[in-house]
Amino acid sequence: MSLDDSFSGWRPLQLASEGPRYLALVNALEQDIADGRLTDGDRLPAHRDLARQLGLSVGTVSKAYQEAEQRGIVSGHVGQGTFVRRRTITRSEAAARHEPVNLGLNVPAEGNETQILAALFSEIARERDLGPLLRYHPHAGISKHREVIAASLSDSSFTVEPAQLFLCNGAQHAIDIALRLIVKSGDSILVDALTYSGFKAIAVASHLNLVPVEMDKEGLRPDALKQACRESGARVLYCMPTLQSPTARTMSIARRRRIAELAEELDLAVIEDDVYGFFFPERPVPIASLAPGRTFYVTSYSKCVAPGFRLGTLTVPTAYTGQAELLLHASAWFVAPMISEAAVRLIESGDLEELLRERRRQALERYRVFLEVFPEASKLQFPAFYAWLPLPPKWSPDQFAAAARGCGIFVTPSIASAVSDGNPGAVRICLGAPKDLVELSEVLQTLREILGRHPLNVVSVA
């Protein structure tokens, strides 16, 4: 008797008493393989023989073998029989066994920021008496800090006046202040049809109505803006002309000029969120330079230095400076002077520019990896720490997010950014969280594998 013949007499030690009998047989088979009672290449009993031994119908055994083959634990060969085979673990299953990877949170890749900031804070503590930084300060921020930061934000296309610049606890705080300057509860705000999720949170908390404006490859469409404004009566626009979140689209200078013209024509106040302008060696011309009398301009150091480095800026039209200072008083009194002192030293020492160069290099490297795995994605996007991934028609964004989550990968579901119903046909993938390019490639390959399978099958497995 051959070795294969001896194993053809296999029968399970026991079958579960509950549930379908064919599943009980498959689970018993899988358990015996895991326990070593069956190994790769062992031949299983013929359908009819096993059915007779276990008191089951031939159809039940056939269905069990079919299910086992779908699970990848056996293989059937016509005229030869059914054999145990070593199961190949997919990337999806392997990823699920490790720590979750968050591709839904837009964070910078790890770089030299920790060492730079550690040295900087040590220098501040060593070189000067900390007492002055621990006192009360003007609500808008320390005057010298505002001057240095305003100068660093200014260029040939846009001049930021220190008197119009207010230091805030990150961009989220700055956006909230801007809204409180120009809207009241119940007002309508014009936004991209897919907009920044943090802005949606502020709108909900402030009881504001969001009016979606249709988009094209550059972001919001001027004709759609004009129509939405007239139909809704909204008089405030929130937009991200540079690397719009979540779609990573960037407006041309012609588009920015047209938006500025429409702001004048339609009497719109504009909140311009420019937290990602630093990815460009030469920042695109902001709408604030084209319509300075009606634009509230927001930037942030949290996006380029570190998420915990909570310092944002809000530049307001001259008419709003007094009210802006009052709102800073009411909401935060002032930003932590230690943080703004650190920002000024980063600027003056050149360390900030060094860090920005590193961020641009990291973004380029990671975006190249993204395009290697997903060559169908837009190559027109400027490299950043996130990208817009088109989905095959069979997948909805929410299905894909659920399937990825089942494999230990978090991506942003469409509900986070969508302002109206509909399938955007894509999801945002953040590229900064994986520790290196190898891990990033592996995680993205898992997402590619998920997209190659059927949504219902993947979600049910997860």
Automatic annotation (TrEMBL):
Entry keyword annotation includes DNA-binding: yes
Species assigned in the record: Rhizobium altiplani
Lineage: Bacteria, Pseudomonadati, Pseudomonadota, Alphaproteobacteria, Hyphomicrobiales
Domain of life: Bacteria
Keyword terms: DNA-binding, Pyridoxal phosphate, Transcription, Transcription regulation
Keyword Acetylation part of the UniProt annotation: no
Name under which the protein is recorded: Transcriptional regulator
Gene Ontology molecular function: any one: DNA-binding transcription factor activity
Family: In the C-terminal section; belongs to the class-I pyridoxal-phosphate-dependent aminotransferase family.
Domain HTH gntR-type, chain residue ranges per copy: 19-87
